[in-house]
Amino acid sequence: MSDMLVPLYKLPEHHALLRTLAESGIEIRRGLVPEKHKVTAWVRENFRPSWVDECEAAFARVPVSCWIAVEKGELIGFGCYDATCRGFFGPTGVSEAARGKGVGKAILLACLHAMQAEGYGYAAIGGVGPKEFYAKAAGAIEIPDSTPGIYKGMLSALRNPNG
Fold first, then answer.
1. What is the distance in angstroms between the CA of the first residue and the CA of the last residue of the chain?
2. Residue 155 pLDDT grade (very low, low, confident, very high; cuts 50, 70, 90)
3. Are strands 122-125 and 88-94 parallel, antiparallel or unpaired?
4. b/e for 7-23, b at 16 or more Cβ within 10 A?
5. Phi, psi (5° rounding) for residue 126?
6. Dist CA 111 CA 67 (whole Å)
7. pTM of the prediction?
8. Which residues contact 136 (CB under 8 A, 6 or more apart)?
């Protein structure tokens, strides 16, 4: 899986999507440090163990670089940036029940706009699975010869290819 690059100066507007989700009861916001244990437990239950480590790194930043999606008081999605490397978006995930509602796109754009506000010109997305999604949602382009990229030799990858 190769990496992708997003020119942050070309990001699409995202406020209309955030409003639409809010009107349907879904809030996209930056996580709060006191929520770290709940977010990391949810990520551990639903995704890869290595993503928990990245979430913890995102919660250790000021400002926190983990954004979450909440519906009826329940976590339904998350996305991080500056977790494994500065300037990198990810990991990110949305519960199966919430997929197809625009939650993933909203989290992605919220994170990328936050990165732009913090002074980044570009964002990298490492080890991308759904290339078409990132290209359409944020204008991401594939970085040639970027596999395995920053993940080369990662211990968990050597022990367990799933994370």
1. 14
2. confident
3. parallel
4. ebeebeebeebbeebee
5. -85, 140
6. 7
7. 0.93
8. none
